[in-house]
Amino acid sequence: MPELPVALTEAWSIDKAELVADTPSSLVFRVWRRGSTNIVKSLKPAGHGELPGLDFLEWRQGLGAVRLIDRIGHSSLLEDGGARTLREHLDRWGDEEATDVVLRVLGKLHAPGGRTAPEALVPLDRHFKSLFLLAETSGSSELGTLASWAARIARGLLSEQLGQRPLHGDLHHENLVQDASGEWRAIDPQGLYGDPVYDVANVFGNPQGNETLVLDRLRIMRLTERFAAHFGCSGRKVLSYAAVHAMLSVAWMLEDGASLAGDARLAERLAFARIARSLVVEHFVD
């Protein structure tokens, strides 16, 4: 089992460390130091793309997201935001209550910051590059048709961005956690820069694996209306970002070796993209 390096243990005066997660991109430890708990996240080579997310946390200074306390190399010492996820909250209290939490945290994440935005944040046009590549290489199959439509919609959204600002970039039900005091915070940001509406795009496709909820047209409409009211924009814009993100996720999965035949996560994302496209094209939301 992976252990926390001695150099980090000594530098941060850590008394005890417990491995919480070992993913392809990082090792995550809950640590005990100075009478309280913190989180240590050490990025593997495959996780170096998450470095802009650490810059986002440093910029946000604990408002709406866990606080970044210190960094050494590719390891970071973070505030412990708690172990209860929004997915667990949804399972107990329902989707409407979970959406309330998302909106409360968004209000903090998108509040004006007192410092200049980090230069390392990734602009949305670069973030969407895998989608554009998929659209160029998928031919005339259904996948190609969906990817081409999503790429065209994405380019339109990029040309009409409003209120561009630092974004979390990966808000979903596993990346919102609650501590013992009841405070909700975001974890694991991507660190993007662009239109704030994109920050709700991944909420639609989650909780991952809950196909009944994710593919429920009434739920999609409800989220669209609530987020549109929050941002003061059209429902079409909100749902368009959700559809674009779904196809971007498909592109990432295919790049990682997923197969169109037999991958449940990929099938769910494609199914959502089909529904979202039909709602956008038929103007069901405006």
Structural overview:
The protein is α+β, with helices and mostly antiparallel strands. The chain is built from eleven helices and eleven strands. The protein has a five-stranded antiparallel sheet, with helices on one face. Strands 6-9-10 form a three-stranded antiparallel sheet. It has a three-stranded mixed sheet with strand order 7-11-8. The protein has two domains: 6-79, Phosphorylase Kinase, domain 1 (2-Layer Sandwich), CATH 3.30.200.20; 84-281, Aminoglycoside phosphotransferase (APH), C-terminal lobe (Aminoglycoside 3'-phosphotransferase, Chain: A, domain 2). Helix content is 45%, strand content 17%. A hairpin with a 2-residue loop joins strand 4 (68-72) and strand 5. The chain has helices spanning 6-11, 51-60, 86-93, 95-109, 124-127, 129-137, 142-159, 211-214, 217-231, 235-255, 264-281; strands at 16-22, 26-33, 36-43, 68-72, 75-79, 84-85, 122-123, 165-167, 176-178, 184-186, 192-194. The longest helix has 21 residues, at 235-255. The chain is globular and about 60 Å long.
Question: Topology of this protein?
Answer:
Elements: H1 6-11, E1 16-22, E2 26-33, E3 36-43, H2 51-60, E4 68-72, E5 75-79, E6 84-85, H3 86-93, H4 95-109, E7 122-123, H5 124-127, H6 129-137, H7 142-159, E8 165-167, E9 176-178, E10 184-186, E11 192-194, H8 211-214, H9 217-231, H10 235-255, H11 264-281
Parallel strand pairs: 7-11
Antiparallel strand pairs: 1-2, 2-3, 3-5, 4-5, 6-9, 8-11, 9-10
Helix pairs in contact: 3-4, 6-7, 6-10, 7-10, 7-11, 9-10, 10-11
Q: What is the number of E strands?
A: 11
CATH architectural grouping of the largest domain: Alpha-Beta Complex
Question: What is the CA–CA distance across the termini?
Answer: 52 Å
Number of domains: 2
For the record, the CATH class of the largest domain is: Alpha Beta
- Counting DSSP H or I runs of 4 or more residues, the number of helices is 11
* Multimeric organization: single chain
